[in-house]
Amino acid sequence: MSDVVRAVSGLMDRAGAAIARFSRPLRDALILVGLARAAYYYIVQGIHPWTFPGVDARAYWGIDLAHPYVGSGVGDVSTFLYSPAFAQVMAPLSLLPFPVFDALWTVLLVATLAWLVRPWPWALLILFLPISYELFVGNVQFLIAAAIVIGFRWSAAWAFPILTKITPAVGLLWFAVRREWRALATAVGVTAAIVVVSFALSPSAWADWIAFLLASPGRSEMLLPRLVIAALLVALGAMTGRRWLVPVAVWLSLPVVWINSWVILLAIIRLRERADPLIALEATS
Predict the structure, then answer these.
(1) Tens digit of pLDDT for each residue in 241-254?
(2) pLDDT tens for residues 105-148?
(3) For residues 116 and 269, is the Cβ–Cβ distance under 8 A?
(4) Are the beta carbons of 249 and 271 closer than 8 angstroms?
(5) What is the spatial distance between Cα 142 and Cα 145, in angstroms, rounded to a whole number?
(6) Are 218 and 74 in contact (CB under 8 A)?
(7) Is the pTM of this model over 0.90?
(8) Which of 81, 170, 204, 238 sits CB 3.0–4.6 Å from 177 for a disulfide?
(9) What angle do CA 262, 31, 22 make, to 5 degrees?
């Protein structure tokens, strides 16, 4: 297995060197592609998210804690899909008028985006379509990208993507493969503790959520093979020290990959530096 991993890592090193050699023209080409894709989507396809601003954010604002999943469906407008724990955290914000909530939520998303792209602002143009779409609708995917980055230092941050999208839990394989048991235990323990407290507050909501997930059509979108590939990517990243493969895996593992889901890849910018390869660590132990 180690020989295969070394061979794949060598191929990736050579690919990385080639990309670095032509980084400027490649960057410029990606910017053109990104802007052209956005123009085609907004102008030719005629999809205008600015006509339904805050459509996802509204789902996090007016949550009925007693029955958070009544009428909810994947792809339906402003319906709540995440765990009861997230609903309980967000519920007090329903006391605010929606325009105030939406403004504060957008400020949070813009601040998170600015932090993610600060080392490489050209990403704003390359991913202009998913970034702009995400800002218009107000989903949580900038926050998931930030949680992935922060999770390498404070693994408890993984509770957020797990308790919203669930399948990002595949990223925890990084700690398991590298035998970073303390970090893994912290991520699992914090998530479990939140679930226990949330369940104690509203066990019926958790039963409703599980029933909703089992009936969700999103499960049929090639989810199982995507999860397998995502797990392999995380394992490869862990063995070769390539942290940037984790956000790629999380993006691939999402129950449904929407146009704005691509913003999760912004985490790559903050995770470009390579960690010590696991094989090298084993050789010196």
Answers:
(1) 999 999 999 999 99
(2) 999 999 999 999 999 999 999 999 999 999 999 999 999 999 99
(3) yes
(4) no
(5) 5
(6) yes
(7) yes
(8) 238
(9) 105
